[in-house]
Design brief:
Oligomer: homodimer
Distance between the termini of chain A: 28 Å
Largest sheet of chain A: 5 strands, parallel
Largest interface: A-B, 32 and 33 residues
Shape of chain A: elongated
Strand order of the largest sheet of chain A: 2-1-3-4-5
Strand content of chain A: 15-25%
Structural class of chain A: alpha/beta
Chain lengths: 227, 227
DNA sequence: CACGGGCATCAGGGTTCCGTCAAGGACGGC
DNA sequence: GCCGTCCTTGACGGAACCCTGATGCCCGTG
């Protein structure tokens, strides 16, 4: 299911968007200011962001830059300003599209679909989404892990961490990068989180958790996932 | 250089676009009908297409579908029609953006930059830089060293030192430079560090550590890495 | 031939980093 | 409002890592 983050300080607009999006089977989060938006984006990793530029706490362009610091999620800007400069500034800051209020719901939804569509991974390669090891199988598309014929139950954070590691199979992922991708851009030094959750993953997935074969520690640098 | 394909049947619009784009160092091709557009797209592989929907020979949406059959090149639609249905149809056919005439050149160029930007390959660090020698292989992206089919474990300092040397393959790297890049700018005279860690690297990577072939000492000056 | 500078090697000790456990708190479902 | 799940945080023992000093070798110089 596609996850949308709606950011607007006008309740009636948020309501209209939420209703329309939910009716079309989108999963919707909403924020009414920039700080909440950045926080929610980090926590929920939406597939697309609909962002009103006129927010009470900060400039909308700052929100765009804050997002672009760590993610390429499509950003669809909503604004009452028609001025060309505003549009150029927002687009160059990293927005993907710019719609002026008042807008037609049909058009907005079509632009949303376009933004989501082109963010989809390139090939229709189903094969690449499944990663197998001797001990377990990870299905990135279905968000499932299977071990010995049974599905393994992972918490959201555990899954997220696993996902980042698996998407970088064989490559070393630095602890700072892991923290930022899983916990959000404001993290980077809380390495104890990594220790705790890496232990959980090993306990659930490794054949012998005390002698990990797949989740490998590189002391002082980060972790590495090996098939 | 970014290559743009402009498709429009109105000469003055094409001219305005071509002038503005060339002034900004884009490489520009132009077509005045759909058939030519499809042909040029196939022959020239543009990085982005600016497409007017009102063409003399075929429906603009057909051009979009024709392109989408084989390429994900960003398509920026230009149209005099303001109707919502038109926009939705074009976007759902595979267009990336929809601008209504008359349009501001600044805005169009900003949308063009946005379309090109998000089509860029993910992460500039994907370039798997691999350096091979007779004895071992270094993968700078994955931070991995392989020797005789087995991965070699390096400590952070060892890896850092190796990285600096490998990035300067064949060149002499001064001791001061090595110390500053690996240990920080306040170091420069602690050459004993270098001796210790160079010995570690040789022991782990050289075929005959006592007679190094790849990590070569230049007495009094520094070290050099040779393939 | 004696000497000294620069380098290689080795092993010890202090420090940082990691794995593990357990407790407390936030959140949502029933 | 209770209960279970999940996330956060702190503490501690042990392992990995980094620095340091000592020793011996090579080589050019006096």
């Amino acid at each position: 299911m596609t996850r949308v983050l709606v950011v607007d300080d006008e309740p009636q607009i948020v309501r209209a968007l939420v209703i329309n999006l939910k009716a079309r089977k989108y999963e919707v989060d909403a924020a009414h200011d920039g700080a909440t938006a950045l926080q929610l984006a980090a926590a929920r990793h939406p597939d697309v962001v609909v962002l009103d530029l006129g927010l009470p706490d900060m400039d909308g362009v700052e929100v765009i830059k804050g997002l672009r610091g760590w993610t390429r999620v499509p950003i669809l800007v909503l604004s009452a300003r028609h001025s060309s400069d505003e549009k150029v500034e927002a687009l160059d800051a990293g927005a993907d599209d710019y719609v002026t209020k008042p807008f037609g719901m049909d058009e907005l939804l079509a632009r949303l679909r376009a933004a989501v569509r082109r963010a989809e991974p390139v090939g229709g390669d189903e094969a690449d989404v499944i990663v197998e090891t001797d001990d377990f199988t990870v299905d990135l598309a279905a968000k499932k892990v299977n071990r010995g014929g049974k599905d393994v139950r992972l918490t959201p954070t555990e899954w997220h961490l696993l996902e980042v590691l698996v998407r970088n199979t064989g490559r070393l992922v630095g602890q700072k990068q892991l923290l930022q991708e899983v916990w959000g851009p404001s993290y980077g030094t809380e390495t104890n989180y990594l220790r705790v959750y890496m232990a959980q993953l090993r306990r659930k997935l490794e054949g012998d958790p005390s002698r990990p074969r797949h989740f490998i520690t590189e002391a002082g640098m980060g972790y590495r996932f090996e098939k």
